[in-house]
């Protein structure tokens, strides 16, 4: 389980096709490094498993299967790409974002970006058609692992307002028109839909 509060940025330093997927090597710096083999880390919001690490986790590897590559934007990464990183939440820590599973539901597309005031930026993002029913104004969404509030919903697109803190500390700083972002809808919306579908049987 994750919170959608990105801890740090990582840089892809090596990409190696193996078996039926790709092994990625990520370089980063953790504020409190404690990585172990088998740990779960959200990479752009996709839950992946640490398969090898060194330097207290400042250099680590994970493997993404072809299915994961198909469903996420990990397949679009190149050497030098920046990714959002969050370790699985620890028992007793503050829950500052929202419930994030690290299960990517699809890819959204950035359709516009503009600065509105004092380095605050507005984004409009197109949501895949099969996921649009889960979005409401003031609801939550995870994009590339970032917990965000949906400001408005219009014609299958959502409006986001990002403050400088978010832009500076995540890869949102590099988001541009037509870029694909991993999207995970609010799991509570999924449960509600499933519950209501059961009542209609």
TrEMBL record:
CDD domains: Riboflavin_synthase_like (cd00402). It catalyses: 2 6,7-dimethyl-8-(1-D-ribityl)lumazine + H(+) = 5-amino-6-(D-ribitylamino)uracil + riboflavin. The keyword Chaperone does not apply. Residues 1-98, 99-196 form the Lumazine-binding domain. The keyword Transferase applies. One of its GO terms (biological process) is riboflavin biosynthetic process. Keywords: Repeat, Riboflavin biosynthesis, Transferase. It is an enzyme of class 2 (transferase). Pathway: Cofactor biosynthesis; riboflavin biosynthesis; riboflavin from 2-hydroxy-3-oxobutyl phosphate and 5-amino-6-(D-ribitylamino)uracil: step 2/2. GO terms for molecular function: riboflavin synthase activity. Its EC number is 2.5.1.9. InterPro entries: ATP_synth_asu-like_sf, Lumazine-bd, Lumazine-bd_dom, Riboflavin_synthase-like_b-brl. Lumazine-binding repeats lie at residues 1-98, 99-196. Pfam families: Lum_binding (PF00677). Catalyzes the dismutation of two molecules of 6,7-dimethyl-8-ribityllumazine, resulting in the formation of riboflavin and 5-amino-6-(D-ribitylamino)uracil. This is Riboflavin synthase. It comes from Leptospira bouyouniensis.
């Amino acid at each position: 389980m994750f919170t959608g509060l990105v801890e740090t940025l990582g840089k892809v330093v090596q990409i190696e096709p193996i078996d039926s997927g790709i092994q990625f090597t990520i370089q980063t710096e953790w504020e409190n490094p404690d990585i172990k083999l088998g740990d779960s880390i959200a990479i752009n919001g996709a839950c992946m498993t640490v398969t090898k690490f060194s330097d207290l986790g400042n250099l680590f590897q994970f493997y993404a299967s072809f299915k994961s590559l198909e469903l996420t934007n990990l397949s679009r990464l190149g050497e030098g790409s920046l990714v959002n990183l969050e370790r699985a939440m620890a028992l007793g820590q503050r829950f500052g974002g929202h419930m994030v599973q690290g299960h990517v539901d699809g890819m959204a597309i950035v359709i516009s970006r503009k600065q509105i005031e004092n380095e605050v930026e507005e984004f409009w993002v197109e949501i895949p058609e099969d996921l649009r029913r889960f979005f409401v104004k003031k609801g939550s969404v995870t994009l590339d692992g970032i917990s965000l509030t949906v400001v408005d919903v219009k014609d299958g697109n959502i409006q986001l307002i990002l403050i400088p803190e978010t832009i500076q500390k995540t890869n949102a700083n590099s988001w541009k028109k037509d870029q694909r972002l991993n999207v995970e809808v609010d799991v509570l919306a999924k449960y509600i839909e499933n519950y209501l579908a059961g009542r209609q049987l």
